[in-house]
Amino acid sequence: MRDMRERSTAEQQHEEQLRGASDGAGVRAYLLHRAKPHLPPWLGVGGAGLAGALGSLKWSESVAAGVGLTLASVALTGATWWAARSTSQQRRLHSAITVAAGSAWVTAACLAGPTAGPLPDLYLMGGPVVALSWNVRMLMRRSVDGAAGEGADKGLLEKVGLARAQIGAVKVDPNRVTAPIELEAGEQTNDDVTKSLSRLASALDLPTTAIRYQPDPSSARRGELVIVPEDMLAEAIEWMGPSNLGGSIAEPLVIGRYDDGSPLLLWLPGDPEAGRNSTHVLVAGVSGSGKGDTALNLLTEILSRCDVVVWMSDPKMFQDFGPLRPGLDWSVEGGSGTEVMVEAIKAAIPARTRWLGAHGYRQWLPEAAQTQTSPKHSCRKDGTACGCPGMPFLVAWMEEAANTLRALGDDAFTGIAQEARSAGIALVVSLQRPSYDQMSTSTRASLPSVIALGCDPRDEGFSLPEAVLDAGAHPGAWGNRRPGYCYTVSPGIPEDRYPSPGRTFNFTVRSVSVLEVLASWAQRNGATAGPVTAQAAASVAGQLYTGRAAPGTDQPAPAWAGEGEGEIEMDGGPLIDPEDTHLDPEADLPSAEPGDDAPLFGQDTGRKPSPEEARQLLAQALAEFESEGRMIVGPKDFTDWCDANGYSRPWVSARLKEAALEGRLEPTAQTGRWRIVPALTAA
Questions:
Q1: Which member of 195, 327, 556, 575 has the greatest number of CB atoms within 10 A?
Q2: d(CA 406, CA 157)
Q3: Looking at beta carbons, which pairs linking 287-290 to residues 24 or more positions away fall under 8 Å?
Q4: Largest CA-CA distance found in the chain, in angstroms, rounded
Q5: What is the pLDDT of residue 482?
Q6: Start-to-end C-alpha separation, the chain
Q7: Crossing angle of helices 119-141/39-59, nearest 10°?
């Protein structure tokens, strides 16, 4: 293919030179240039006549020469047939017939003379016919329209079992060759091309990832063959900072480049004008495939935008994302904190969709993040501008999600993945192996976008759609040997780009200082969650959700605090817990009861609390859990409490159900686990 491209370029330059001359010399040069490819057959005819004439002078009427010339003619014909075994059947037969006819005439001319009997007539009539047959063949191979026939590319297709395919006009771009292919009707399909890609790569001496086939959606026998001769991804490119600092999250995120040098782009929110849907993203790849750098590329692009907030769960204790953590609106390190975050996202979805619908948005748009000053997006019935605070886009990031899925179940994200897009929420799930024993099929089907890095060849079907694999995508060829190499499938990316490999930018030690500066910028200039999202999170997480830390401090701003009764005042206000407001500080303490003193040796322990006192103790335990940020509890969390108070876990389970009826607890997706409703919300 590379030779074809160089030859085509040279011929094009020569054509331009010939067209530049319009005088007689230029015309002669042009005609000679056009005639050159057709001269060899005629030279062969002339050579045969000359050989017959000269041979008759030496071997006329020689029996021995007759035997030798006959054997030579047969041997030459056989050698031609053998040498043409790698070409098409038509070319092989045409070559053998031509050599047999020419050598037979030369043998007869050498023995009997070129003018004997019918020999001159055969020469004058048969010679031009043979020469013209080759000229016609050449014209059919290289037509005026530029359609390819049995040229170099046709021979290449014959080698891989596609001899009857027709190649259209080849388009040559920098480091990219695109050739339209039309297969034989009724005999070949696009599947035949996809099955031959590996053999085609072998014939061109290229890696299998350098050749892709994009079928025409409207035809079963047409498509485009894309060849990238040079791997421009071999050299890693260091990350140099965000591509669009201060821009909108609706603008493309630049996370790397493709093998032809073009940028690798990704969109999260939808765009109704462009016909692009909002999306969730799956980042998948084996250990060592560059998943961490890929996530950093995506996260830095998100944090550099002005109308988005990020909630992140990372069971790896933010080993990769530590410098960026101050810029996150909410971050937890797995465990119960992740359980609470998942429940908070579920609570935020209806709150955000309700706000979008009330303000006339069918989906999240950048205008939704601004103060609502347009009557078109007003929640007032009179149609005047409402002035409501905006609601930024929300990215819910689940790093090392296999850990969370093991704890919460394989369908932990199913509801979020199915409903969050309409609420202006993008879910990012990162894990090594998105197999169906880790993630439910419903969740996987609800993640439209995927960044597929190197994987085990047997796991390719878990990451990429079958059509992309058929088109030539092969992440199993990389494994963990080429960190950052990936295929990206996402709305907004042209489908012919899906099987094109890309590579994300590389993060080094020098990048750490830039990441810290970016996190500081996000603290000062990034969006806040807004009252709708913050109150929804606080209704589930209570004090566990605090919002992003204020610039220059380690303590976050009180984003969870709401308005109305039950609000805890931070400056000069009451500091009494809401559940203690009914207590009279002037009342006398209750008198001692039997069993309140310490037991003597050999005696039973103190008295068992009454049912009412036990409920109060349970309420106190729930308040302690809430103050510690442990918002998801179950009977096993009360083991020490049961031992201290002499109650069993079944009794605790019954009391937890009573607390749920009273509104202090809410059930979670896991059986036997309850979410504490913050006391502030209950009040």
A1: 327
A2: 49
A3: 287/432, 287/480, 288/454, 288/480, 288/483, 289/453, 289/454, 289/455, 289/478, 289/479, 289/480, 289/482, 289/483, 289/484, 289/485, 290/453, 290/454, 290/482, 290/483, 290/484, 290/485, 290/486, 290/504
A4: 146
A5: 92
A6: 74
A7: 160
How does 656-677 read in b/e, with b if 16+ C-beta sit within 10 Å? beebeeeebbbebbeeebbbbb
Alpha helices (runs of H) in 255-387, residue ranges in sequence order:
291-303, 336-358
CB atoms inside a 10 Å sphere around CB 558: 15
Spatial separation of the C-alpha atoms in residues 645 and 641, rounded to whole Å = 6
Hunting for tokens 């905006």 — which residue is that?
Answer: 390
Predicted pLDDT at 162? 79
Could you read off the pLDDT of 528-582 as tens digits, one per residue? 999 999 999 988 888 889 888 777 665 444 443 333 333 333 333 444 445 555 5
Q: Are 643 and 559 a contacting pair, CB within 8 Å?
A: no
Pairing type for strands 330-332 and 393-398 reads unpaired
288 annotated as ligand-binding:
yes
- Helical (H) or strand (E) element with 445: helix 441-445
Distance of alpha carbon 534 from alpha carbon 185, whole angstroms = 61
Question: 291 among the known binding-site residues?
Answer: yes
Pick the residue with more confidence: 584 or 530?
530
Is 78 one of the annotated binding-site residues? no
pLDDT average, residue stretch 251-272:
94
Q: What are phi and psi of 301, to 5 degrees?
A: -65, -40
* 304 is known to lie in a ligand binding site: no
Query: What digits encode the pLDDT tens for the residues 361-420?
Result: 999 999 999 999 999 999 998 889 999 999 999 999 999 998 888 888 888 899 999 999
Rounded-to-5 percentages of helix, strand, coil across the chain = 45, 15, 40
Task: Report which of 160, 520, 451, 401 is spatially closest to residue 294, judged by C-alpha positions.
Answer: 451
Q: Does 241 show up as a binding residue in the annotation?
A: no
pLDDT in tens, 480-500: 999 999 999 999 999 989 999
Closest C-alpha to 266, from 313, 301, 291 = 301
Strand partners, 181: 167, 223
Please provide residue 589's backbone torsions phi and psi, each rounded to the nearest 5 degrees. Answer: -70, 150
Range 326-338 average pLDDT:
91
Q: Is 287 annotated as a binding residue?
A: yes
Known binder of ligand: residue 127? no
CA distance 637 to 617: 14
Both tokens assigned to 42: 């005629």
- Whether residue 12 has pLDDT greater than 60: no
Q: Provide mean pLDDT across the span 235-258.
A: 95
